[in-house]
Amino acid sequence: MNFIAIDFETANSNRTSICSMGAAIVENGKLIGTEHFFIKPIPNYYDGFNSQLHGIDDSHTRNKGTFAQQWQELRKYFDNKVIVAHNASFDCSVLRSTLENARIPFPDLDYHCTFRLSQATLPLPGHKLSDVSRHFKIKLSHHNAESDANAAALIALKLCEQFKASSLKELSLGLGFKIGKIVSSTNTYRAFSKK
Asked: So where are the chain's domains?
């Protein structure tokens, strides 16, 4: 089972304002490592609410490249990959908006949402990343993109283990979800959703 869990933090209410990205790499069913990137947001300003949430401000990103400028390094986490995110509708819309704004063609990828999968399987009062991480005893520094991606990866693995699924595709389809897709040839997407 191979996939990459991602998380974006944004500087303001614009979906193009990625200021931080975390990635957690899973190979053969094992979490093998995590990565973190600071990114200059577009538009380049910080809303106080966002900075209070994730602790990032201009001092962290003023000398970093934009997402478009870092795309050649970042695309390996997306192109022809299986992606996981907790609330993937947000993270994938941020990715699409940012690429569209930069006029960069979409990568080809399939994606799954651990928020929706947790909602469908875990009888918890809430299914935020902090709730599900607590349930599975996963250490979390919430709104740190690397920590959030790490937690999403571990949640995906725990759910596959719990339901004896050999892949995220098997888990998602077995629970009645359509797998989300982003398609490069048509620059379109299909949401991760119930069938």
From this structure: 3-194
What dihedral angle (degrees, nearest 10) is formed by the CA atoms of 84, 90, 95, 101? 170
Query: What are the CA-CA distances from residue 69 to residues 19, 31, 35, 106, 115 (Å)?
Result: 13, 28, 18, 15, 30
What are φ and ψ of residue 175, in 5° steps?
Answer: -95, 5
Q: Which CATH architecture has domain 3-194?
A: 2-Layer Sandwich (3.30)
Q: Which residues are CB-contacts of 95 (< 8 A; sequence separation ≥ 6)? A: 8, 78, 182
**In one letter, which amino acid is 95?**
L
Place of tokens 């629970």: 175
- Does the model's pTM come out above 0.90? yes
Mean pLDDT for the stretch of residues 25-29: 98
> With contact defined as beta carbons under 8 Å apart, do 103 and 171 qualify?
no
What's the pLDDT tens digit per position in 118-135?
999 999 999 999 999 999
